[in-house]
Structure formats: structure tokens, C-alpha cells
Amino acid sequence: MSRPLDDTPRARQHALARRRALAAAAGLAAASAAPRALAQSDWPSKPVRIVVPFAAGGTTDIVTRTIAEQLGPVLKQTLVVENRAGAGGNVGAEAVAKSAPDGYTFLMGTPGTQAINQFLFPKMPYDTEKDLIPVSFCVRVPNVMIVPPSLGVKSIDDLIALARSRPGKLTYGSPGNGSTGQLSTELFKTRAKIFVTHIPYRGSAPMLSDLMGGQIDMSIDNLPSAIPHIRSGKLLALGVTSSTPNAQLPDVRPIAASLPGYEAESWFVLVAPRGTPEAIVQRLSAEVDRILKKPEVIERFRGLGAEPVGGTPADLAKHIAAETRKWKEVVRISGAKVD
């Protein structure tokens, strides 16, 4: 026998309160789902900004503009590339880390901003791991040891001999404190047992200009930004930092031929402020991955000596973690510090 319905005023009041609570809960659920649905369906509804933490004209800038050029038509939106150089990439990275996580600001990260700087700088303006999340692994590139022809050396062995004969007199330039240019050269100095003075710049372009002008004596820089000047004869390539020769410079030996075990490469990755909607991160990652597989994009990057990578945010997270461990050890061994 079923129980009679309780139709007292108090029971009706409780039932009304319960219906109101359920309605409120449903409203909250719908409200929380709305931004996710909006992010997935309407993004991007305004220009998207990618911050380059170095000066225009360097490899980070070249990689970013190449990808932005391809992304614009795909996303049907303007891609704004903004150069914010300073402090080895920390200025630009901090700006992105502290931006609203709304899917409209991203960083083209480098080994410096994502792995090295935290071990070089006594105080960081952002937390590499906590404030930035991985989106896309764009490209990896070897570095190359370059000198002006006026220096009078023709090989890595010649350079080492010159540096040993003039301890502390030679200078090397880098795109900035914390760059792979600095760390690659510090590792080179350690292995070669030489002392060369570091001159940091705010990106590759101004550093290369001074190198060609003879204001500094040597540099290890990314191949894409250096190769036009090597091909023009304004700079001489002495060795690549990869373990094998690069197809764009087949006659240039690896530095490891003179210093066994030496190896150091650069990489360029898209990262976003933590809290950026997952739907946006996954979509952008997928779009970049498709772009990096296009034959014309592969040909363009390989022509610069760079290798497109791609993959998922999870793949990139593993790479950054492994590189962080590697560069932490390089900093420790080389004794490199911010100048």
C-alpha cells in the first residue's frame, strides 16, 4: 500500500525550495559549460597575439612569422606577432605568463624561456612550469659557430688555438642571457678549455650585425638566422652543434669532430598562459600540427636548416621536462651565470 502524499503547507514549501535549488544548480552548470562551448565554437573572434621574446630578424621571429602567416587563413583571423625583447627572453615570457588566459595571447618559447633561464637568473619574474602550458612543438634547429672572415681562422681547431694564445681577449656574442647561443658557447669554452668574454644582445639580428662588422669575434647562433650571412660570405661557418652535418651546410663539420661529445640544439615551441581553455589549446595545437606537415612549409623550414616537429601538448610537455634536466646540468658544468 503506497504512502499518502504529504500536502501540508510545510511540505509544499520544502518542495518549492528543492525545485528552486535544482533550477539554480542547472543554471550554474549551463553557465560553466557556456564558456567552454563558446571557446570551442567562436574562437577566435578577434586578433590573436603571439609574443616573440627577442628582437625582429632572429630565428624565433622567423619561425613565428612563418607559422602566423599560415595560421591566419586557417583561423580566419589576424595573427599579430609582437616582439618584446629583453632579459634573455624573460620580458616577453613574463608578459604572456601574466596575460589573461583567454586564448588570445601565446608565446613562442625557446630553451631559454622554458628551460634555461630559471637556472641562470637569481630571480625569475614568472614560474616556467606553473605559469605557462605547452601547446605545440614547432621546430628544432642546430646552432652554428660563426666568425667574421677578418678574424683569420678557418676551422674550430684554429679558433681554439687563437683563443688559447689570447686568453680573455676574444669576445663572443649571443642573442641574450639564457639563450642557447650563450649556453652552447659556454659549453664550448668548457670543453675547449678557453676563456672568451660574453657580450649579450637583445636578439640575433643586432648581434649578427656587430659580428659582421667585427665588433665581436665569434658566436654560436641558430642556423636559420645565420645562414643567409654564411651564404653571402659575410660570415664564416666553422662548425655545427649537431652530432652530424646539416644538409644546408654539408661541408661544415660538427664541432664534435674537434670536441668529442659536444652537442647542443635549439627549439621553438608555442606555449600559453595557464588557464587557457583546453578546447582552444587542443585546436591550436592540431592546426599547427597540420601546418607543419604541409610540403611547402617543410621545404621552407628545411631550406633554413630547421626541422618541423609538431605533435600534441603532452608530447611537448615531455620534451620540455627532458630539456630542463639537460640544460640544468649544462649550466652546472659550465658555471654559466647572467652577466
Highlighted features:
339 residues, alpha/beta, ten-stranded mixed sheet, 18% strand
Mind sketching the topology for me?
Layout: H1 9-42, E1 48-52, H2 59-75, E2 79-83, H3 90-97, E3 105-109, H4 111-120, H5 128-131, E4 132-147, H6 156-165, E5 171-174, H7 180-192, E6 197-200, H8 204-212, E7 218-222, H9 223-231, E8 236-240, E9 265-273, H10 278-292, H11 295-303, E10 307-308, H12 313-334
Parallel strand pairs: 1-2, 1-3, 5-6, 5-7
Antiparallel strand pairs: 3-9, 4-7, 4-8, 4-9, 4-10
User: How much of the residues is beta strand, in percent?
Assistant: 15-25%
Order of helices and strands: HEHEHEHHEHEHEHEHEEHHEH
Rg over alpha carbons:
26 Å
Molecular shape: globular
Oligomer: single chain
* Structural class assignment: alpha/beta
Low-confidence stretches: 1-5, 29-39
Q: What is the tally of helical segments? A: 12
The total count of strands amounts to 10
Mean pLDDT: 89
What is the CA-CA span between the terminal residues?
Answer: 87 Å
The largest sheet is: 10 strands, mixed
Considering DSSP H and I runs of 4 or more, what fraction of the residues is helical? 40-55%
